[in-house]
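In this supplementary section we document a worked example of the pipeline. Step one takes a protein sequence of length 780 as its only input; no multiple sequence alignment statistics are reported here. Step two produces a three-dimensional model, which step three serialises into structure tokens for compact storage. The input and output of this example are shown verbatim.
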Amino acid sequence: MGTTGLVAILFTDMVASTQAVARLGEEGAERLRQTHFALLREGISEHAGTEVKNLGDGLMVAFVAASDAVACAVAMQQAVERQNRRVGEALAMRVGVAVGEATCEDSDYFGTPVIEAARLCARAEGGRILVTEMARALAGARGGHHFELLGPMELKGLPEGVVVHQVRWEALADAAPPLPTRLAVDRSLAFIGRAGEREALERAWKQAEQGSRQVVLVGGEPGIGKTRLATEVALYAHRQGGLVLLGTCDEDLAVPYQPFVEALRHLVAACPDDELAEALAERGGELTRVLPELPRRVPGLPPPQSADPETERYLLFSAVVGLLGAVSRWRPVVLLLDDLHWATKPTLLLLKHVIRSGEPMALLIVGTYRDSDIGRGHPLTELLAELRRESGVERLALRGLSDGEAVTMMETLAGHDLEGSELALAHAVYAEADGSPFFMRELLRHFIEAGELVQEGDRWTFLGEVSGIPDSVREVIGRRLSRLPGPVDRLLTLGAVIGREFDVAVLGPLAALDGSAVVEALAEARQAALVREVEGSPGRFAFVHALIRHTIYDELGPARRIELHRRVAETLESLGYGDAYLADLAHHWVAATPASAVRPDDIAKAARYSEQAGRRAMASLAYEEAAKHFEGALGAARQGGDGAQICELLIMLGEAQRCTGDPAHRETLLEAGRLAHEYGDADRAARAALANQRGPDGGRRRRAGGCPGTGAGSGRAGGYARASLPPGRSRHRASFRGRGTPSRARPGGARHRPSVGGPPDSCSSAGRPVVRGLGLDRRG
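The serialised model returned by step three reads:
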């Protein structure tokens, strides 16, 4: 005796299969048939269908939900169409779908929906999908499918006409390159809610597909689901044939243009050789500033042009736009930039340039950021304000799930409906976490680990008191950490000091353990869902969420943090990672040197590594990062009391500030001039004065308003330079006059000004003729 219930039935049929046999021969036709059915079965698996039987030229498939049956039919037609384009075949398929009560007996189905679906399939033309009225009604708007009413249709074997609809579908683009490995999503965690936000993102993607550059910026608090939402849309675009690029910003690692470098490296790796060579033909050499490995992939690229700082950066930005624009002409692109609240100023400047570029691009940029982490004066806040006036830019404010969505999420995780104490727990967890998916999962994990939420058979039962929910998720994370064995907790503490991500090769020596012991200990942390292995980087681990790392780091006292930062820095040095980890060494040594009670050697290392990191950032045109490193070096040098070093760092800091357009560069360089005057250092006084005479454009007067470097500040800097000259050198004093000071008149009324053009590192050479005249040239 069979069972009867509501079911959706789908039939497929290959059109003109006999002609295919005649054209391809028995063997070729069989290969085509096997490939055809393999494509169909991929759609069945993806949409939760059950293959009932193979009919020779088609399949009969059963579904629990009508929406799955319709989605599967569309996926099948798209897969067949794309395969036809690949192999140059014109194999067509027709599909019929019906819904109703049917009897299942011996793994087969019998009843009216079976007859309707089979007859609709037989009546359909190749490439068409016909469905009954009930199938259309039950499928509804889920999946975004479009139905066209065809009207009543007489079907053989049925006493009355059946109202029939045709499902409209669009062909997919060619298969996109592989996804970035970090976009892997645990599909067991269903995506709940966010219907409006997802619709907005998918609408933006459709516009990008048509060649319109679109930007969607998703803001919200930590753990609210920003990255998951962006990832879902990226995966949707990838299924539609789009190229997905991912770039992430790191809180501690200040790599210039980090997310763009990460995204472009994936693009270069995934792009076919001929497409890449064509895309880089015009401006590819400029990209070698941030992708030094590029010439190995595309030999013959010209070196980047040398010009003033702003021109060099403009050329770099234009090259990024050119590459994205060229690639998007072959396939639409999604650029996902995650955690923009940690983005450096150079990264945001490049982002603004890409958004405002007039170059046509089939590009969707999705940026995520913590709106709780940006305030007035934050670089991202300034960018968001500027982008309000840009067309094609949309902002989404993500908030917590609703109470109903939260219950649905927890029922999905449990695998059954919730009732009684379990339903009360779901409501309480929702209220405590304010609908944050991450926080809710962390709370549930806490109850499971505490033995208060247990699985009995196929159901979960809550044995604790709802009032016992912790006051904050931070406390929940703390309690989870407290259950770890001491050695594991110690390793996580060291990892938190290193950063969001950490290497076993560094963590082992730091903890005085061999690599196998570290990996074994981290396995427990991984099992507790506190850390994960970074895909594609063996031996590298990352905290599952930044809040976990923050919880651990914040529990350390100031003295403990200083000591651990020093140990991390010493470990990096001992491993010979100086050049590769220059920014990390600068970060850790600066963090290890507070205002007092520091060893002189530590201060010297903080100053040296920060200065080197600053110089490297200047060479990469990341002036904001250079200024940050020079400030760290300056703070360390001020503790050491080396006046010459302090003066030198002030000049470099002033140069970096000048290149960013920061008006503070005037006071910085004035301080350098005062200090040089105090020490009688004419060389540095000259360089400080000359640097203060320039504006951010490298000394060229701007088209409107002149150079920001002119005025009282530059005049005072020139005064310090003239005052620092030795007696008898007065004939050179005119060389230090500021631009606000009258210059010496030449015969015929011409006025002489020293040449101060050129890139930041040309300051010393610009003042060198004057220095040689003073007899202070130290080059020999």
